[in-house]
Structure formats: C-alpha cells, structure tokens
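Quick one: structure tokens for this chain, please?
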Amino acid sequence: MDLERIGKARVMVVGCGALGNEVVKTLALSGVRNFVLVDMDVVEAGNLTRSVMYGTEDVGRRKVDAAADWLAAFRPGIKVSTIHGDVAHDVGINLVRSVDVVVGCVDSRWARYCINRLAFRAGKPWIDGGIIGMVGTCRVFVWNENCYACSLGTDEMNELRRRMPCSGVIRRSIEAGHAPTSAVAASIIGAVQAQETLKMICGEPDMCGRMFTYDGESLRAAFVDFRAWDDDCPVHEKWEPVTDRKIYNYLTVSETLEILNEGFELRDDCFVDYIVSRKDDAKYEVMCPGRAVERAFEADGRLAGELLSGFYQHEYRTIDASFPYPGLTLARLGIPENDVIRTKTGRFILVN
C-alpha cells in the first residue's frame, strides 16, 4: 500500500452507526488523514454495544460530532468535516467531487439509492456495506461499470422511499430481547469496506462486479457475481463539466438569475410556498423545500388533528424569472454549500 497516497486521500463516510464506526476506525489506523462524515442521527443508548467511537457521555449528541471528537483524540492531526443531515439533499455534489471514495454505511435502499446518485453525478466510486444480525455484504460501485439503481428489481424500486431508521430497528430488537446487529459482523464488513477503499486510493484492483457475503451463523464467506449497468438509467448521469460562476448559496434568486442569465432546476426536490386543504381550499403558508413540509405541517398549531394527506402542495421545481419570491436565497430553496446546479439549458454550475 502507498502510505503517501493514503495519507493525502480524502474519504467520505455516510452513516456513523456500527458499520461506519468500524470503517472510520480502520481507515484511521491505516493512515487516512482526511474524512468527511455524514449522518442525520444522534447517539442512542442502543448504539453503545456496537459502536467503538461512542461512550455513555455521547448519548443524545450528534453522531458526526461524537465521531469527530473521537478521531481527534485517536489520531491528532486528522482533518474531519461533518454534515449533520440527509445524504439525499444536504450533501453538495461539489463536496463529493473533492473526495476520492465514498463509503456507504447506511440502513435502507433509499439511502443507498441517494448515495449512488450523488456519487455518480460527482464521478466518484462508492463502496456499500450492510449488516442484518450476523449476516453482512459488501459491494463496490464504479461509474460505467456497476450501478446500484440498475441492480434493483421492480418491487425494490417501489419500496425505495420506505426508510426504516436504524434507531427504530435497534429499539424494537432490544425490546424483544435480541441483538439487532452483530458487532462481529460489523467489524468484518467494515474491514472489507476499508480494505476496498484503500485499494481504490492506491489504484489496485477492486472487487467491482462481485459481492462479498459473510454469514456469522455458518461462518461462511463467499463471492457472488454482482454487476448491473443500463446505459439508459438516468440515476448514473455524470454532472460535468462544472463551471465556476461565483455563485454562492447565500445569493438571492434574482442575483443568481442575473449571473446565469437563465433559470435553473432544483436538484431532486421542490420548493413549496403553501399547502391547500382538500376539504375547504384553505391555504397555509410553509415556504420551505418539499422535504421540510411535513415538519412545517406538524409545527403549525392551526393544523392539530389534521393529516398531511388531506392537503396538496403548491410547488416549484424550476426557478426562473417567473418565480414570485426573487428575494429568497438559494439556501432557503434547499441548495447546500459546495453543490452543483443544472440550468435550464443543461449547464452545470458550481455553488460555493
């Protein structure tokens, strides 16, 4: 292994649960000095039996913050950037372009789908790991070779948006008297993910096109062929070339449109200005990205006892001169820092 290349590499780890803990720990031991950690959850008591980076004092803290503190103490001098948010919307494409490898340590098809989409738009490989009980798998996805979305069947695609949070699985398993995941399986799959990451950094052959499986009950490990690539799949579209036009996410819509001289699209979401009751056409202002509508709905005391399904939302997916709120910033529209936006004519523009 080329220690110099490993030391200069930057790795993004999405998911800081049991699997993410093992990946980060092993990569740090191996000489990686630059990390980007992404997770939307906080440390729970159930995490402590499987997560080496968390102690009782961390319960209730953001996982990314606790992990960053552990790394700082474990290997002084390590550089860590953190994002406490959803990989589907809160991670900028340009940030992903700045890393060498993305490692997915998540617990749902939807999260894997989003990592796949984000990594391929940035032109980066990603390594997926998953564990259920004592069984685990590891796969490698490389643009133009193997795509997670292309591997999904019809039923799996239909279930994509059904996210089961790891905390919920853990809580129910503990209540039933079962261990939700095996620390041993997490160690093994995390080690394989870390090994594949190091191989990619050093330019050595990886296991793209094969899936590693481990079964702790039978103590068996195996490889199976696993490669899928459909040229017509829109999910693995690469967003390039990217142009820097000095656009920042604190700029207003009017300022941005003046620089671009054309409209732009919102990435994988929309902006909702109000929702309307289906029973009496009453309007309620929300002024937030589509992903935040449910939270705004629940916070509105006027809607207590109502169901969100009883409303429809008025939304915008393209922002141009007809957008009625030119004073809103790009951040209010849900565009993160270090992102890339696509204009109406198909240009890709950097958002600093």
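The first helix runs from residue 3 to 8.
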